[in-house]
Amino acid sequence: MSPRRVLLLAAVLLPQGGPPATLPALPADLAALAAEVGRAHGSLAIAEPEAFQARIVLTPLGRTQDTVMVTLDASYLTRAETTPLIRYAVDEQGRKIERGLDAKGPWARNDKAVYALQGKDYAEEATKLRRDLGLARQLLHFVRPHALLLALRQAGVPEAQDLPRIGRLPPQPCITVRGRLDDFPFHQARGEAGPAEVRVWIDRSTRRLAAVQATPLDDSGRPSGKVAELVLLREFQPRSTLLLPTELVVYERVGVESLKAVARVQVQGLDLAPKLAAKDLERPARG
Q1: 2.60.40, 3.90.25, 2.170.130, 2.50.20: which CATH number matches 36-281?
Q2: Where would you tag: which of 23, 64, 139, 225 has the fewest CB atoms within 10 A of its CB?
């Protein structure tokens, strides 16, 4: 055997890398976990945003229709007098539409007119508005994940449990906790919001938010039978002092094991401190 062959054989047989890293210990309780997650995301000192502006690219997945990538330029105001307000422009393959929710209710504008989203003729478009409003509310949960954890009612003790394999992604070592929220904003076909059992996965190594699953509940606090939703958070990037996910993948969970990809959401140019007032989100006077 030549010296060159010996060296090549040795390189193949040598172990790659060092011993596996030791994972950090489990936090003692939910408050300790929330503090660790807040430090990892840089969100502990961030007050709840009152508004945001963002460009959002929404790509429906796994459907036989409505699979066109949609770009939304959105302005969202959380602390209006009675309800959150939103106004956004939609670009659907060159077809430009504006939609919003103001004090008078849901509305839209095309190249011909401004019109209220009321009645059967506008039911589909009103559903899209509710879906996009739910997405905006979800984004605020993910900006301050420590606050999401602390908002859970009837929360259990944090446990070590992998986020199961999703598609080609391997299982992810995580800390998981369950609890309930009275008004979780679902990003499903009808854009509903309501009470939910919520399960949160936190990456055990980085303490970053990894995934959130929400199961709709009925008035008695039991699973309603509606489809549960899982949101996978990816592509974290620093924005000022915050570490934010810039890609969300939304799944519908049917039964215990079956997951169906619904949408990929890419967040671009997020501004958490725009100068917005309710009048800025009002519908135009005319088309």
Answers
A1: 2.50.20
A2: 64
> Left, alpha or beta for 130 (phi > 0: left; psi -120 to 50: alpha)?
alpha
Structure tokens at 191: 């854009």
SS3 198: strand
Written as one letter, the residue type at 39 is R
Q: Where are the domains of the chain?
A: 36-281
Cα–Cα distance measured from residue 101 to residue 111, given in angstroms and rounded to the nearest whole number: 19
Query: How far, in Å, CA of 180 to CA of 195, rounded?
Result: 7
Full-model pTM: 0.84
Strand pairing report for 193-203 and 174-185: antiparallel
Tokens found for residue 25:
């210990």
Residue 146, pLDDT > 90, answer yes
Question: CA of 241: how far to CAs of 137, 210, 245, 277, in Å?
Answer: 21, 19, 13, 25
The pairing of beta strand 70-77 with beta strand 228-239: unpaired
Alpha helices by DSSP H, listed for the chain, are: 3-13, 30-41, 123-143, 145-151
- 220 C-beta neighbours (distance < 10 Å), count: 6
For range 40-53, the mean pLDDT: 91
CA dist 186 → 26, 149, 252, 281 (Å): 29, 17, 10, 23
Q: Which two tokens stand for residue 182?
A: 């009275």
**What single letter denotes the amino acid at residue 187?**
H
Mean pLDDT of all residues belonging to the chain:
84
